[in-house]
Amino acid sequence: MKNxxxxxxxxxxxxxxxxxxxxxxxxxxxxxxxxxxxCKAEPAFKGYSGYPFSLCCSVNNQVVHGFPTNKExxxxxxxxxxxxxxxxxxxxxxxxxxxxxxVGENAQRLLKITEEALYKGIEKATVEHNLxxxxxxxxxxxxxxxxxxxxxxxxxxxxxxxxxxxxxxxFGKPGRGVKLKQGMVLAIEPMINEKGHAVKVxxxxxxAVTLDGGLSxxxxxxxxxxxxxxxxxxxx
Length: 236
Ligand code: MF3
Ligand code: CO
Description:
CATH superfamily: Creatinase/methionine aminopeptidase superfamily
Bound molecules: 2-amino-4-trifluoromethylsulfanyl-butyric acid, cobalt (II) ion
CATH class: Alpha Beta
Number of helices: 4
């Protein structure tokens, strides 16, 4: 899994460096797909349950699963990019949210808190903890900072399939759910909203947006639970 995850990490880092006002998310999608194929990997999302692209591109009030488009990104936007590949039968999955040009203070804070919440969750991905300790740690950091946690979408086990059990919610009481074990691999992926937690899916059947129009951020890593603690497979 390290190999597929490293391709995902490298692709996201290259995309981060391409992202600026004026670029389109369709250009990012094309780059991600061709870079994965150059590395002999397959984009994992294209065709998954009929998803039509390789990259998910969610702008501003879009939460997850936004479609790449030919609209140019503008200074002040925030963009979540979510990418997965499969290599030799093993999946990798990660996401980052990136500011475009100069973004507002609350947007900056939302990105910072969401990324921190991901790392708070990852800290709990050890054999001493239960699954919901991850969830509770993410929720505490997000809500403690005045933001809200999306309920309808969750993290997941990952391995020979993109989505395996268990589901990994970003909310809940600690001490519940399965006991974490060495060898489990989880995609931990907080989706955090600036205002209310409610979301709806647009008529395209995929794009999730905040109900109140507030901003939303998403960070994700694929994380292995080992005897030496969590190993972030999608860290470069
Ligand atoms: N990272 C997301 C997930 O784990 C992306 C899935 S997009 C899909 O669910 F198209 F593959 F569904
Ligand atoms: Co995922």
